[in-house]
Write a structure and sequence with these properties.
Elements (H helix, E strand, L loop, with lengths): L5 H8 L33 H23 L1 E4 L12 E4 L5 H9 L8 E6 H4 L3 H10 L2 E4 L6 H12 L3 E4 L17 H9 L3 E7 L1 H4 L12 E5 L11 H20 L2 H10 L12 H11 L16
Parallel strand pairs: 1-7, 2-5, 2-6, 3-4, 3-5
Antiparallel strand pairs: 6-7
Helix pairs in contact: 2-3, 6-7, 7-9, 9-10
Length: 306
Amino acid sequence: MKRPSAGSVTGRVGFPYRAPTVPAGVKVPTESEALGAHYDTRWARSFGARWARTVLLEGAVRPLVRLVADPDRRGYDRLAALDGPVIFAANHHSHVDAGLLLSSLPEPWRYKVFTGAAADYFFSNRVTATLSALALGAIPIERSEVTRRSADEAAALIDDGWSMVIFPEGGRSPDGWGQRFRGGAAYLSIRCGVPVVPVHIEGTGQILPKGTKKLRPGRTRVTFGRPLRPADGESSRRFAARLEQEVAALADEVAGDWYTARRRAHAGTSPPLTGPDAGAWRRTWALSQRRGRPRPAASPPRWPKL
């Protein structure tokens, strides 16, 4: 007696031995739709993932940052009166920024923090998505426009006591100068009622600039600013501009001295993060004049020769 073929059997019995039929007009979700902004990072807040992230941060990231970036961290005194979750908003020049900032956060924020990461870059495939969620505690954020899904996920974590690291420029600097701050950090601050700590990062653009993969060890400085809160009725766009001005004032501190920088900040004349509105050569020259390796805190001041 001839045995029926496997194809004829599955043809008769149908689902679950073969794919189910799909009604007309219904779109079948593809695997890629589980990535990008749709990637579920809830597992990264589990006890096991948090424990692994702490071990990774203290055992690998901090030593590597110390070796490659030699950070000088300042402004911790400005955070002394803070309590509860906050949003750390920093300028962005390099992939080194995330590890440098996460390893620079003081306790208790260092061990209960998540990072807003570009959905199209860090969550483009399963491998990078898993590594980003585990190592950085990252959640996917749309760069072009913060979607309701991204905003709701970030707000829920902040309401649950988690702090957030975010780079409001939306991407790394293409030429060494900063970019305009977008409103994500400001919006979440207004929505969740938490302060924003402006942070300025200096030096990472020389260590690993955009478009390169070769590390060039150097010195960096991380400067924490005074916490800011939105004023009554202040829009997220206006608050984002104020955050950008405060990070620019911190950059002015690094480039010069604290007193002069604070006077300019009070007068609203701090040099902008975005640099001069001029041609490429003029911007490159201006950046070379401003840029310099930050001195370690223990170095003596350089007095002029008389």
